[in-house]
Automatic annotation (TrEMBL):
<keyword id="KW-0456">Lyase</keyword>
<dbReference type="InterPro" id="IPR037523">
    <property type="entry name" value="VOC_core"/>
</dbReference>
<dbReference type="InterPro" id="IPR004360">
    <property type="entry name" value="Glyas_Fos-R_dOase_dom"/>
</dbReference>
<dbReference type="GO" id="GO:0051213">
    <property type="term" value="F:dioxygenase activity"/>
</dbReference>
<dbReference type="Pfam" id="PF00903">
    <property type="entry name" value="Glyoxalase"/>
</dbReference>
<keyword id="KW-0223">Dioxygenase</keyword>
<dbReference type="InterPro" id="IPR029068">
    <property type="entry name" value="Glyas_Bleomycin-R_OHBP_Dase"/>
</dbReference>
<feature type="domain" description="VOC">
    <location>
        <begin position="142"/>
        <end position="259"/>
    </location>
</feature>
<feature type="domain" description="VOC">
    <location>
        <begin position="9"/>
        <end position="124"/>
    </location>
</feature>
<protein>
    <submittedName>
        <fullName>Catechol 2,3-dioxygenase-like lactoylglutathione lyase family enzyme</fullName>
    </submittedName>
</protein>
<keyword id="KW-0560">Oxidoreductase</keyword>
<dbReference type="GO" id="GO:0016829">
    <property type="term" value="F:lyase activity"/>
</dbReference>
Length: 312
């Protein structure tokens, strides 16, 4: 039972944490985002090269949790069409399509996925004046992709394909066990993905840099500031993008990346890459080898927000 995707792109992800001030300072002063709205314990942060009013939402809460992941679509009619399909398939809505009261407004629906994450799909959200990132400027252009951990990844991948119309780009495995699935809703190799893990949780968010030089400068800036780079720099096989992975101040994995592959929808066929072959995790061979301890860095804490709608 497949759905034709009405999704056009990834808009933002929203996370909550007790150490809000520390987290806000990290994303503004270290990671290189621009705060567009700050409202009593909630911060909305944009990437300077993106028209999205915000790509990250931070919220102060007594517990760390993933609030939601948000995607855009072309029109309010597409939001309504998707909602009708979700209701017909007995997906639980957080709220029906309505005018949004978050910055930028728009029209959107929220619902729970099969494991209890909150997903938002919206249209007609206001855009911001953005700019071209300059040569050698080591700050993100835009949010590239978000991946989630799942204890039932085959079921969850199928859910996103069937209910939201994602297409499978590539799969990673170790031996005969598949561990990672890359999903797309446009012609970028992936904007979303699922990783096999012991519990449902946020895996990582990736931010696109202007180019290789800016990617390396951003990586180096964090290193000089004393933030541990637990994997990278290197270049993945699936998606052909570069990577440097860090932890934010709440223990969530964030990535600097660039040159994510653009696929030809008419000719693309999904690949299965075996991570027991080192070049499939890092084509360059410059990153530290993928180990169990590195993988554990992105397993994250058990998400306390499953099947619990955020307060905003």
């Amino acid at each position: 039972m497949n759905t034709t995707s009405v999704l056009t792109h990834l808009r933002y992800f929203a996370i909550a944490m007790p150490n809000f001030d520390e987290q806000r300072a990290f994303y503004r002063e270290t990671w290189g985002l621009t705060e567009t709205v700050n409202d009593s314990g909630v911060s909305f942060l944009a990437a300077e090269g993106s028209p999205e009013l915000y790509t990250v939402r931070l919220r102060k809460d007594s517990e760390k949790r993933m609030d939601l992941v948000a995607f855009g679509c072309a029109s309010p009619a597409d939001v309504d069409t998707l909602t009708e399909q979700l209701i017909a398939r007995r997906v639980t809505l957080v709220h029906e399509p309505r005018e949004l009261d978050t910055p930028g407004g728009g029209y959107g629906v929220r619902f729970f996925d099969n494991e209890g994450r909150v997903v938002e799909v919206s249209a007609d959200v206001a855009v911001r004046a953005h700019r071209k990132i300059e040569e050698r400027e080591p700050i993100p252009v835009k949010l590239s992709h978000v991946l989630m951990n799942s204890p039932t990844p085959e079921v969850t991948v199928r859910w996103y394909i069937d209910h939201l119309g994602f297409r499978l780009s590539d799969t990673m495995r170790i031996g005969d066990r598949e561990i990672m699935w890359f999903l797309r809703c446009n012609d970028f190799h992936h904007s979303f993905g699922i990783v096999r893990g012991p519990h449902a949780a946020f895996n990582h968010a990736s931010f696109e840099m202007r180019g290789i030089d800016e990617f390396m400068r951003g990586t180096g800036r964090l290193h000089r500031l004393g933030f541990e780079r637990f994997w990278g720099p290197g270049r993945h096989r699936a998606g052909d993008n570069t990577f440097s992975y860090f932890l934010d101040q709440a223990g969530n994995t964030v990535e600097y990346s660039t040159e994510l592959e653009v696929v030809d929808e008419d000719t693309w066929h999904p690949h299965i890459y075996d991570l027991s072959e080192p070049e499939n995790s890092d084509q360059w061979g410059t990153a530290n080898p993928m180990t169990e301890s590195i993988a554990a860095c992105s397993r994250n804490d058990v998400d306390r927000g499953l099947f619990v709608a955020p307060p905003m």
